[in-house]
């Protein structure tokens, strides 16, 4: 799946936000609040990006075997 549906992206965001919001240590200090928020958003971004790109091919050399374009 190359294009992610909005519902799936929203669900991923909600899961990560709830996990961050329910973290009791996030309000210990301003530094901890910002650090925990940034960490959670990076996790969410990684998951969203991976889902939007799709699964990685099992064969690393697949691209190397492609035929070059020849203009004849």
Taken as a percent bin, the fraction of beta residues is under 5%
Biggest beta sheet summary: none
What's the N-to-C terminus distance?
35 Å
Assembly form of the protein = single chain
Helix content: 55-70%
Sum up the overall morphology in one term: elongated
Mean pLDDT: 79
Rounded Rg: 19 Å
Count of strand segments:
0
Q: How would you describe what is shown here?
A:
The chain is mostly helical. It contains 2 helices and no strands. α1 runs antiparallel to α2 (30-53).
Q: Which features characterize this protein?
A:
72 residues; mainly alpha; 0% strand
Topology readout:
Blueprint: H1 6-21, H2 30-53
Quick gist of this model?
With 72 residues, the chain is an all-alpha fold.
